Amino acid sequence: MQELLDAPLAPLTTFRLGGPATRLITATTDTEVIDAVREADDTGTPLLLVGGGSNLVIGDKGFLGTALRIATRGFTLDGTRLELAAGEVWTDAVARTVDAGLAGIECLAGIPGSAGATPIQNVGAYGQEVSSTVTEVVAYDRHTRETVTLANDACAFSYRHSRFKAEPERFVVLRVRFLLEDADGLSAPLKYAETARALGVEAGERVPLARARETVLKLRAGKGMVLDPEDHDTWSAGSFFTNPILTEEEFGVFHARVVERLGADAAPPAFPAGDGRTKTSAAWLIDRAGFTKGYGTGAARISTKHTLALTNRGGATAEDLLALAREVVTGVRDAFGVTLVNEPVMVGVDL
Q1: Residue 239 annotated among the catalytic residues of the structure
Q2: 3-state DSSP call for residue 332?
Q3: What is the rounded CA–CA span in Å between residue 219 and residue 223?
Q4: 74-92: per-residue pLDDT in tens?
Q5: Is 333 noted as a catalytic residue in this protein?
Q6: Which is the catalytic residue, given 177, 239, 288, 301?
Q7: Catalytic residue among 160, 163, 213, 220
């Protein structure tokens, strides 16, 4: 294991902001990960887990404790069964499954971060979520001090949520196992209308895997959602807010506010979310509340390509970013009565 003291954390995050950690350990094997976690637990030292850093907002004062960077590697393919070490670069793993002719995660191409983070957030985009292909998650249980294997149904997956996110101090993901599909080189049926339109097909159809992946990468790049060190629109955590899911009563109140503000013909995006609930678009809310692409005057601004991404234009502090986020949350709530919830994990700060 590599160990550094008073170690900068900003370079380990896609936001490129935040203060240092008292101590930074880089672990390259599961055993090293477990040993570092046990040491922190035994000594009562605060512990921060860092993977690809694409879902972290670290406060300007940094982290008083041990930051554990999980840099394990492992890509094992057995037929349609895939196992990834937690530290594997997710977008590279997706590319390798497409090259192998296997469907199921091709529309998750270009998502920054590590494989171990995908079940925590139940990562999803363009009609796919990892919960539909994850079979098991191997994790270290800090309560029982044992390595455990959790089947899909034990992970309690829901929209951008899981048991791992609900119990952040308990599980450390070590490996993720997936069951993919051999569809003779074709993608899974396309579920997302934008993807289908871009490919010139109908929703529900299949297309060659490589075409699906390339199209998603192009769509993401157009929104500043594919990492590029030269493009400040990608100095972000991707979508900063989750799409609100409203009860029938909440959606009725929301719709009335939309009509009052935008006129009788205004129709907010609405998608069935189960149990009588409706999901609407955070990006739509942000834009209609007056926060357009490029909004802001300081070092932290809304992306010039997508209203759902908050960005560091260079030299931003965590407080710069949070001030912008709070302005957006307040503006959307005042306009439509809906409170946006941040998607990234906050370390030493909150909204």
Answers
A1: yes
A2: helix
A3: 7
A4: 999 999 999 999 999 999 9
A5: no
A6: 239
A7: 160
